[in-house]
From TrEMBL, chain A:
Domain Acyl-CoA oxidase/dehydrogenase middle: 122-218
PROSITE patterns listed in its UniProt record: ACYL_COA_DH_1 (PS00072), ACYL_COA_DH_2 (PS00073)
InterPro entries assigned: Acyl-CoA_DH_CS, Acyl-CoA_Oxase/DH_mid-dom, Acyl-CoA_Oxase/DH_mid-dom_sf, AcylCo_DH-like_C, AcylCo_DH/oxidase_C, AcylCoA_DH/ox_N, AcylCoA_DH/ox_N_sf, AcylCoA_DH/oxidase_NM_dom_sf
Cofactor(s) needed by this chain: FAD
Xref: Pfam families: Acyl-CoA_dh_1, Acyl-CoA_dh_M, Acyl-CoA_dh_N
Alphabetically ordered keywords of this record: FAD, Flavoprotein, Oxidoreductase
PANTHER family listed in its UniProt record: ACYL-COA DEHYDROGENASE, ISOVALERYL-COA DEHYDROGENASE, MITOCHONDRIAL-RELATED
Domain Acyl-CoA dehydrogenase/oxidase N-terminal: 6-118
The protein's name: Isovaleryl-CoA dehydrogenase
Superkingdom of the source species: Bacteria
The Acyl-CoA dehydrogenase/oxidase C-terminal domain, residue ranges: 231-378
Keyword Heme: no
Family, similarity comment: Belongs to the acyl-CoA dehydrogenase family.
UniProtKB/TrEMBL annotation, chain B:
Coiled-coil intervals: none
Protein name: Electron transfer flavoprotein subunit beta
Biological source species: Bacillus badius
Function: The electron transfer flavoprotein serves as a specific electron acceptor for other dehydrogenases. It transfers the electrons to the main respiratory chain via ETF-ubiquinone oxidoreductase (ETF dehydrogenase).
PANTHER family assigned: ELECTRON TRANSFER FLAVOPROTEIN BETA-SUBUNIT (PTHR21294), ELECTRON TRANSFER FLAVOPROTEIN SUBUNIT BETA (PTHR21294:SF8)
Keyword set includes Transport: yes
Alphabetical keyword list: Electron transport, Transport
Protein family per UniProt: Belongs to the ETF beta-subunit/FixA family.
Alphabetized InterPro entries for the sequence: ET-Flavoprotein_bsu_CS, ETF_a/b_N, ETF_b, ETF_beta_N, Rossmann-like_a/b/a_fold
A Pfam family it matches: ETF
Cofactor: AMP
Oligomeric and partner information: Heterodimer of an alpha and a beta subunit.
Listed Gene3D superfamilies: HUPs
């Protein structure tokens, strides 16, 4: 056993932390207000190699591991939850599926510019009637000669407004047992028939770009099929397993930010002649927050480590996502409580943490779905 | 261009620092590259990128300084040398560090040596000039701009807020002042590459130095934190009364007049 980060991981952490302090955190409040997207930060993250952390150098990546990636997500999420979400989605959902399942040509065409930070990509799975129940997918792709013709609708797609391409899941046929065959197809965002509108008014993670996509007779070459046409479903289950680690890391970042804010405030705020950090009621809250953050981070690092070792990590990733996102919500809630009336004011940041944290209990599989996944791993 | 950078690992003075038993407590302190040395590293990399050559970063310290040297390598330096004095030097001072560095540098044929203007911990600002002196090399401190054309060097240095322009020649030692540049972040590919770059570790023996040759010339009597800043006081009443009270307080309480 060795819980220590490697020198490279430690250096990466220091680098991302100071970068996020300077280039991301100062904009968090404003972007939350305007629901803007920090394009400048993404450009700089690309230059620093952060958008290619888990991909090998031959594909324009930095050749880092999942643990390094989780560290980067945590530090960025600590500075701004919305930017953190867009960052995590860009890698876990936009780029990773092409790295996992793409052909060499697809990797060169789509993955390399993403890993270098020159472009962003999205993953279009969720529909008005299908999310975790992928069987409800209604988007259809029909082969017509050498092209797929795609029709359907996708919702809540992260980064689509800035994406060069979207990996879209669509029904391509029926199995003998009557179940739909779901495939994943790479659709250029500028293909005729693709309409992307980003008008959601969200509760939190407002600095993250979220869009609705309508596909009307969109034609793409059949070479754009991603991976096995029969196994689209298991492919995106694998993709989501990996994505959970990054959502969990983001949750740890927000929880850590909430803890630090609350601790600092508790030490400064004087009531009844002493700082409120001297009161046990406040101390117990801070102790619980710190303990849960530590536990959540350990679980995130463990599931990332398992993935890096090529071992099964689905159960641990679901546990990490479940525990970290709920920790993040609780810690943000307690941070507001410790701040009292000030905490309810936007100026003090902690109310934003709570709104941002709420998404993490919902996105990429709700907490209920995580419990189902974990229970299945237990053999239920 | 054969460029050397003198780098110190120091605690981050923006983080909380505590003193116990006359020593700064290293547990819980954050350690960084001395910020002025970071300017030095950045400038060295820029000059190398422009003129070609090699940047070697040198630090006198203990094993822990490897992390800061690796960070400099990740920023883009080519080589690093750690002169580990952990076993040999108990209480070093500026003389100690300068003597060791000069001994290391004397046969390296450096064209340019860049150091930080001052370290944020000890704050003596002596090591750079002392090294230059021991090497018999000209030096310019607190530079904010440097341009090299052939052998000649054009420098702007900060003189208590004013600028002084200096023309000089290589070889040369300069110390970096804030404003010289904006140090880059070490990129992730840079961090990965740093793993494979050479980092040599030397001890006093390797430099043919004895412990007593580098013995400190100064003695530290006490280490303490500056007094805590008290809340200010606002005087009230008629202006003339306030002036009267202020003068009284300066005399009787602050004892400055």
């Amino acid at each position: 056993m060795n819980f220590e980060l490697t020198k490279e991981q430690q250096m990466l952490k220091d680098m991302v932390r100071s970068f996020a302090e300077k280039e991301i955190k100062p904009y968090a409040q404003e972007l939350d207000k305007t629901s803007g997207f920090n394009e400048q930060a993404f450009k700089k993250m690309g230059e620093l190699g952060l958008l290619g952390i888990p991909f090998p150098e031959e594909y324009g990546g930095s050749g880092g591991d999942t643990v390094s990636y989780a560290i980067a997500v945590e530090e960025i999420g600590k500075a701004c939850g919305g930017t953190g979400l867009s960052y995590a989605a860009a890698i876990s959902l936009g780029a990773s599926p092409i790295f996992y399942f793409g052909t060499e040509e697809q990797k060169q065409e789509w993955l390399v510019p993403m890993a270098k930070g020159e472009t962003l990509g999205s993953f279009g799975l969720t529909e008005p009637n299908a999310g975790s129940d992928a069987g409800g997918t209604r988007t259809k792709a029909v082969l017509d000669g050498d092209e797929y013709v795609i029709n359907g609708e996708k919702c809540w797609i992260t980064n689509a407004g800035f994406a060069r391409q979207i990996i879209v899941t669509a029904v391509t046929g029926k199995k003998d047992n009557g179940r739909s065959i779901i495939s994943a197809i790479i659709v250029p965002a500028d293909a005729p028939g693709v309409t992307i509108s980003c008008n959601y008014d969200k509760m939190g993670v407002r600095a993250s770009n979220t869009c609705e996509i309508v596909l009307e007779n969109v034609r793409v070459p059949k070479e754009n099929l991603l991976g096995d046409s029969q196994k689209g479903f298991s492919q995106f289950l694998y993709t989501l397993d990996g994505g959970r680690i990054s959502i969990a890391a983001l949750a740890v970042g927000i929880a850590q930010a909430a803890l630090e804010k609350a601790l600092q405030y508790a030490k400064e705020r004087v009531q009844f002649g002493q700082s409120i950090s001297k009161f046990q009621a406040i101390q117990f809250k801070l102790a619980d927050m710190a303990t849960e953050v530590e536990l959540a981070r350990n679980l995130v690092h463990k599931s990332a480590w398992l993935k890096d070792q090529g071992k099964p990590f689905g159960k641990e990733a679901a546990m990490a996502k479940l525990f970290a996102s709920e920790t993040s919500f609780r810690a943000s809630n307690q941070a507001i409580q410790i701040h009292g009336g000030y905490g309810y004011m936007k100026e003090y940041d902690v109310e934003r943490f709570l709104r941002d944290a709420k998404l993490l209990e919902i996105g990429e599989g709700t907490s209920e779905i995580q419990r189902l996944v974990i229970a299945r791993h237990l053999g239920c | 261009m054969n460029i050397y950078v003198l780098l110190k690992r120091t605690f981050d003075t923006e983080e909380k620092i505590s003193v116990a038993n006359g020593q700064i407590q290293e547990d819980g302190a954050e350690f960084i590259i001395n910020p002025y040395d970071e300017y030095a590293v950045e400038e060295a990399i820029q000059i190398r990128d422009d003129k070609g050559g090699e940047v070697t970063v040198v630090s006198v310290g203990n094993e822990e300084a490897e992390k800061q040297l690796r960070t400099a390598l990740a920023m883009g330096a080519d080589k690093a040398v750690l002169i580990n004095t952990e076993d040999d030097v108990e209480n070093g001072d500026q003389y100690t560090t300068a003597k060791i560095l000069a001994e290391f540098l004397k046969d390296k044929e450096a064209d340019l040596i860049i150091a930080g203007n001052v370290a944020i911990d000890g704050g003596s600002g002596q090591v750079g000039p002392r090294v230059a002196d021991l090497l018999g090399m000209p030096y310019v401190t607190t530079i904010t701009e440097i341009k090299i054309e052939g052998e000649s060097v054009h420098i702007v240095r900060d003189v208590e807020g004013d600028s002084e322009k200096i023309e000089t020649k290589l070889p040369l030692l300069v110390t970096a002042q804030q404003g010289l540049n904006d140090p880059r972040y070490p990129s992730l590919p840079g961090i990965m590459k740093a793993k494979k770059k050479p980092l040599d570790e030397l001890e006093l023996d390797d430099l043919d130095l004895d412990e007593d040759e580098v013995e400190a010339k100064t003695e530290t009597i006490a280490v303490f934190l500056p007094p805590k800043k008290e809340a200010g006081r606002i005087l009230e009443g008629e202006l003339s009364d306030q002036v009267q009270e202020l003068v009284n307080l300066l005399h009787s309480e602050a004892k400055v007049i």
